[in-house]
Amino acid sequence: MDDLRTLHRTLDLCLKVGEVLLSSGAGAPDVVATMRALARSLGVRHTQVDVTFTSLAMSVQQGPDEAPVVQLRAVTQREIDYEDLTRVDHLVREVVAGHTDLEGARTEVARIVSSGHGRPRWAATLGWGLMCAGVGLQLGGNLVVVLVAMLAAICIDRLQLLMTRRRLPGFYQQVAGGVVATVLAALGTRLAEPWVHLNASLVVTANIIMLLAGIGFMGAIQDALSGFFVTGGARILEAVLATAGIIAGVSGGLSLCAAVGLDIPELTLPRFDLVGVSALGVGGAVAAAAFAFASYAPLRTLLPIGILGGVALVVTQLVVEAGFGRTWAVGLAAFLIGLFGYTVGRTFRVPPLVVVVSAVVPLLPGLSIYRGLFLLGEDGGGQAAQGLLAMVTAASIAIALASGVILGEYVAQPVMREARRVEARLAGPRLVGVTRVRRRPRARARGR
């Protein structure tokens, strides 16, 4: 009876850990491998784990003549929380290393999921504002563009928080965010017109990137590439719906502004020169670090994440100027992020997922989406064709970002022999969790 009770408590611990990982954006292969490693380190072998987008199942059969023990857990929370993800990752490593037992791990997991964040919610809102300010700077906007983008981001975040408390689906939250971004940009242009020029297109683009940043492209592509097609398909569908909400909101906002006489001028970007490269790098660094801050990442990671995101953005622009397509340039930069993100994660003791997802934020295809929407709204078949091409380019950039990061992790994180034994069915690189389970040393015989 005690052994059966211990088995149930072990499976419950593994399911709670898997729920935190899955809800924070970890890929299904990482969740499966981490749960198996945790169970094995606690003495439960030959477990079976099934991961879908909304539920987790774990089972074990202790003998061929015994009924299997099965436990299920629903995954309902979808908020990005890198603080809880990091703490759970550290806890798993402590258990695997033999420094924490089952009861201690259960107590710590309960403390993690029930305690609040180390920084208040208004600080996260300010982080989203700073992220959009950084994007506005990287696009070449002036001080007015940066301030209006920051104000619009703060309004969008508070509105979406209110809608979340009202339990409205994420699709409608994205639609509302797109409308607010477009209307505030048009109003800012009209109010600032007598004194200073405000490029409203840059404000809208910055807020589109903010709305894209919360979409789990990375986990969706990782699941699809790793053979978890059910989970990957569900995540891709969620990402498509969220992106469709952004498109609907921005296009509706453009139509509303045109109906009331608040036309937004055509998007114009600055030339590529030394000053532009400096603003590009600084803006990208601010955007990446601010997203990590808004997602409750540990403060020690903000500087390296900012540097990695800024350098990746500069590399992208240099490759584009060298004559390569933007999709290939973004893919190369994403590969470098994945390559160095693993090292940064190990150095600063955070899961690589925290580093790579934050660092790719400046590379999200907000510019292509806005350009496509603007051209689709123009008269003429040629403009509509260019708009469709821009939307296809945005989709290819999103795929290049995720696949490039995962390829970088493949190169940076080779699967060791111990990891193969623990993760026999793992088909992808590890962005969360341990890669090796150490066997606990056996007690030495007395008299030696």
Strand content: under 5%
Helix-strand makeup class? mainly alpha
User: What Rg, in angstroms, do the CA atoms define?
Assistant: 23 Å
Which sheet architecture does the biggest sheet show?
A: 3 strands, antiparallel
Number of domains: 2
Q: Quote the average pLDDT.
A: 82
Element pattern in H and E: HHEEEHHHHHHHHHHHHHHH
Strand order of the largest sheet: 1-2-3
Query: How many DSSP E strands?
Result: 3
Shape: elongated
- Helix count, DSSP H or I runs of 4 or more residues: 17
Quote the distance from N terminus to C terminus: 36 Å
Helicity range: 55-70%
What does this structure look like?
The chain is mainly alpha-helical and 448 residues long. It folds into 2 domains: 2-116, no CATH class; 121-410, no CATH class. 67% of the residues lie in helices and 4% in strands. It has helices at residues 2-23, 28-41, 82-96, 102-114, 121-138, 143-165, 170-192, 200-213, 217-225, 229-259, 274-294, 302-321, 326-347, 352-359, 366-376, 381-412, 417-422, and strands at residues 47-51, 55-60, 69-74. It has a 3-stranded antiparallel β-sheet with strand order 1-2-3, with helices on one face. Helix 3 (82-96) packs antiparallel against helix 4. Mean pLDDT is 82; it is low at 415-427 and 440-448.
List the keywords:
disordered C terminus; 17 helices; 67% helix; 3-stranded antiparallel β-sheet; 2 domains; mainly alpha; 448 residues
Brief rundown of the structure:
With 448 residues, the chain is mainly alpha-helical. It folds into 2 domains: 2-116, no CATH class; 121-410, no CATH class. It is built from 17 helices and 3 strands.
